[in-house]
Design brief:
alpha/beta, TIM Barrel, Glycerophosphodiester phosphodiesterase, single chain, GP_PDE_dom
């Protein structure tokens, strides 16, 4: 009997050590930088996803960003490099959905993009240096870097150099870990965030490894982000729950009701919202 108790005790200790080792390994992989500069300047704002668009105002347009700034909101926006190295504010890689024409934004010059119109309106694709002044002295920006295989470091560099020209608070985020790694090495003063979601539910063209790595935030071990920006409906993922438990800063996208906005704020996450429905609720 005594020998049996010793065996059981040894097995229990072994299991406990394995659990502790796994927990410590997960912390080492997932956790980012604890004290990235300037988070307090972003906290307390609500962020309009691609501007405050709708009712004839296209997403990622100057009109949408002007509406957001005038309403006291920050904004989330997307930037891509044009063929001639300008920072175009556009979400999609292709132009058919937003402009009704074929082609890729990265293959056109800034002048060619400026000649197009958004969603049948008179609004055109803006550039980052046109959007930033709208928020100077008002509210922060969350800037998502949309990369291709050639542009990761160049896009990160041009984006922060542009934003630094204005009196504006901002952070930078991306699904692609490469620009975040560039920021970690060359611009550690800039708040950086790893974007993600459950890529097993939303493959988004990602290969098997990227679906696994992005869903579970494995790239954090290299990029050491200041925050994780995760799809709101997927925030129950184990990696996200661990990050929250360890005090990692969070942002949630894309919230579509005031109830979700308030819930995100109660979880101390930056709320990125779009087309909110239901009665407006305030933070308690």
């Amino acid at each position: 009997m005594f020998e049996m108790l010793l065996v059981l005790a040894g097995a229990a200790v072994g299991v406990a050590l394995l659990v502790a080792l796994g927990y410590g390994l997960a912390w080492a992989v997932l956790h980012g930088r604890r004290n990235g500069p300037g988070w307090e300047k972003l906290d307390g704002f609500r962020y309009a996803h691609r501007g405050l668009h709708g009712c004839g105002v296209p997403e990622n347009s100057l009109a949408a960003f002007r509406r957001a700034a005038e309403a006291g909101y920050g904004a989330e926006l997307d930037v891509r490099l044009t063929k001639d190295g300008r920072l175009a504010v556009i979400h999609d890689a292709t132009l058919d959905r937003v402009c009704g024409v074929s082609g890729r934004a990265a293959e056109l010059t800034a002048a060619a993009l400026s000649a197009l119109r958004l969603a049948g309106t008179e609004e055109r694709i803006p550039f980052l240096e046109e959007v930033a002044p709208l928020f100077a002295g008002r509210a922060p920006l969350i800037v998502e870097l949309k990369t291709d295989w050639r542009s990761a470091g160049d896009l990160a560099r041009r984006t922060v150099e542009c934003l630094d020209r204005f009196s504006i608070d901002y952070c930078v985020e991306s699904f692609d870990p490469r620009p975040l790694l560039w920021l970690r090495r060359r611009r550690p003063d800039v708040l950086r965030g790893q974007l993600s979601q459950n890529f097993h539910r939303h493959p988004s063209g990602q290969g098997l490894w990227n679906r696994l790595a992005l869903t579970n935030l494995f790239y954090n071990v290299f990029t050491r982000p200041d925050f994780v920006a995760y799809r709101f409906e997927d925030r129950g993922q184990p990696a996200v729950r661990l990050c929250r438990r360890w005090g990692m800063r969070m942002a949630y996208w894309t919230l579509r009701s005031w109830t979700e906005v308030v819930l995100a704020e109660r979880e101390r996450a930056l709320p990125i919202f779009e087309t909110l429905d239901g009665p407006k609720e305030e933070t308690h």
